[in-house]
Amino acid sequence: MGVIKNSIFILTARGIQIVSSSFIVIAIARYLSVEMYGDYAYVIALVSAVMALTYFGIQQVTIREIAKDRANAHLYIGSAIVLRGGLAAIAAVTMLVSMLFIKPSNLMSAGIAVAIVSESFLTFGMLFRAVFQAFEKMLYEPLITIIYCIALSAGIAVVIYFDMGFLWLLIVTAAANAVQCAAAAFIVSYRFVRPSFMVDKKIFKALLVHSSVIGLGIFFYQNLFRIDVLMLKWLGSAKEVALFQVPHNMVMQVEILPAALMAALFPVLSRLMKSDPDRVVDVYEKSFRYIFILSLILSIYLCLFSKEIIGIVFGSKYSQSAASFVVVSWAVVPLSMDILLNAVLIVMNKQKYSVYYGGITLAVNFLAALVLIPAYGFMAAAYIALFSYCLLFLFSMYFVAKAGLPVVLDRILSKTVLAGAIGAAGMIWLKQFSIIIALSFGVTAYFGVLLMTGAFPPDVFPAFKAAIKNFTGTKHDR
Q1: Alpha helix locations (H) across 200-276?
Q2: Please, is 397 exposed, middle or buried when counting C-beta atoms within 10 Å of its C-beta (0-12, 13-18, 19+)?
Q3: Rounded to whole angstroms, how far apart are CA atoms 50 and 70?
Q4: pLDDT 10s per residue in the chain (478 long)?
Q5: Angle in degrees, CA 7, 9, 13, rounded to 5
Q6: Cβ count within 10 A of residue 161
Q7: Is there a contact between 392 and 338 (Cβ–Cβ < 8 Å)?
Q8: 380 near 235, Cβ under 8 Å?
Q9: Contact between residue 207 and residue 58 where contact means Cβ atoms under 8 Å apart
């Protein structure tokens, strides 16, 4: 029940984040020219690719260790801050040195410098927010998210209204990340625990060793999501970056939802792995089933209505993006599943596997982009990205099964594909008469078939209903 309540808090926060960030992405894409939006996306991808070094798996290990040993939480948090600070400094220097070889324009150089500051605030803010997960007190997530979204939305609105240009978009983003970081640090210090910077060598060494394995995997993962943007810029043009990144960014926004669920599940799974390993199997099976089912219907909707979404949301200047959206929309499924599977590997202390297959997948993506992007541009990037994400999913599922957990996919694949096919066929036929009727039929047919075939057991609904009732009742009592 605690997992569901924490999921409600996190999903609320992520829902606010998705709505806010979606409007911001749309506003920026509409405000900038296609080429300038491509440069904007390139700067963010380039800086975040290098600054990904700062994540280093520190958050996951910190959450796991605090969940098991809250008495020493102050030591874990302090060590994590020190380690992240050192890595942030190394990453920033690396980025600045690399600019000597990239030789960007003055405007791009200024943008890169601002983006480095912005990413630094973001990475420390995420570390402080990880403490909420470790203590399983996610009620602070919506508060921090609202503060961040208000600050960022207001800043972006001012920039667009006064037509302040490309660089100021990055400046107000950095300011919003600074506000978010300060708010999270304040809450952690005064509501949870004050970090101790008298670093315990044993804890620091353990954090460094365990997080380094996860961190290398995260570094590969983070750059896998950005490699195609970088390759399009280097081998193609800023326009092609924009035509790929507009739909790809929408898929990344959708992935906030399964990430929110796993944020609530992760500390629980960490405790269960120590106290009741048998229950981990049950939680894993149910999570796999529901995430797969929900992600598939999302992909179907995004694919079938890709042209309408691009036209309504981003305007005619991005009409060519509809073709790439048809392709990358299917990435919702493998990416959602991999979020679950990768978290399970970390909980089982099998994170070394993600380093292996993350590195292999990144290398495959790079080589494919090197060969195909010069000839086929942004459409090649779309197909390569989808292939890479499917490869991640298959690798992670294999290693989770190898670690002893069941392969759930074979139990639900045929039923979900059947339900998806019936729903999609009906929507395609009804779409010519009414989009609203098509949308309604699709979800009704999909879940109706799943319920009839037993792929989506109804026991989840009473659990969520009870959790919401319990949550609202507790809140009222206070």
Answers
A1: 201-224, 227-235, 238-254, 256-275
A2: buried
A3: 32
A4: 445 555 565 666 666 667 777 788 888 989 999 999 999 999 999 898 888 878 777 777 777 777 777 777 888 888 888 888 888 898 889 888 888 888 888 888 999 999 999 999 998 988 888 888 777 676 777 788 888 888 998 999 999 999 998 899 999 999 999 999 999 899 988 888 888 777 777 777 777 777 776 677 778 878 898 999 999 998 989 899 999 999 998 898 888 778 777 766 776 777 777 677 777 788 788 888 888 999 999 999 999 999 999 988 888 899 999 999 999 999 999 999 998 898 888 788 777 788 888 889 999 999 999 999 999 999 999 999 999 999 999 999 999 888 888 888 888 888 999 999 999 999 999 988 888 999 999 999 999 999 888 876 555 444 444 443 443 444 433 3
A5: 110
A6: 9
A7: yes
A8: no
A9: yes
**Euclidean distance between CA atoms 272 and 281, whole angstroms:** 10
Give me the phi and psi of 103, to 5 degrees please: 55, 60
* Helix, strand and coil in the chain, % to nearest 5: 90, 0, 10
Angle at 344 between CA 65 and CA 331, to 5 degrees: 130
CB 65 within 8 A of CB 83: no
Task: State how far the Cα of 420 lies from the Cα of 449, in Å rounded to an integer.
Answer: 9
Output the DSSP codes for 290-340: HHHHHHHHHHHHHHHTHHHHHHHHH-GGGTTHHHHHHHHGGGHHHHHHHHH
Q: How far is CA 185 from the centre of its chain?
A: 22
Please give the C-alpha separations between residue 210 and each of 66, 74, 357, 358, in angstroms, as whole numbers. 14, 18, 18, 17
C-alpha to C-alpha distance for 27 and 160, rounded to whole angstroms:
8
Cβ proximity of 134 and 270 under 8 Å: no
Angstrom distance (rounded) from CA 32 to CA 163: 10
Place of tokens 């790439």: 324
Residue 468: the pLDDT is 39
Packing angle, helices 34-51 and 2-31, rounded to 10: 140
Assigned token pair, 257: 């939802």
Half-sphere exposure of 122 (CA within 13 A, CB side): 19
- Say if residues 337 and 288 touch (Cβ distance below 8 Å): yes
**Is residue 122 a contact partner of residue 181, using CB atoms and an 8 Å limit?**
yes
Contacts of 402 (CB under 8 A, 6+ apart): none
The amino acid at 218 = I
The distance from CA 44 to its chain's CA centroid, rounded to whole angstroms, is 15
Buried/exposed code over 240-275 (b: 16+ C-beta within 10 A; e: otherwise): bbbbbbbbbbbbbebbbbbbbbbbbbbbbbbbbbee
Separation CA 95–CA 83 (nearest Å): 18
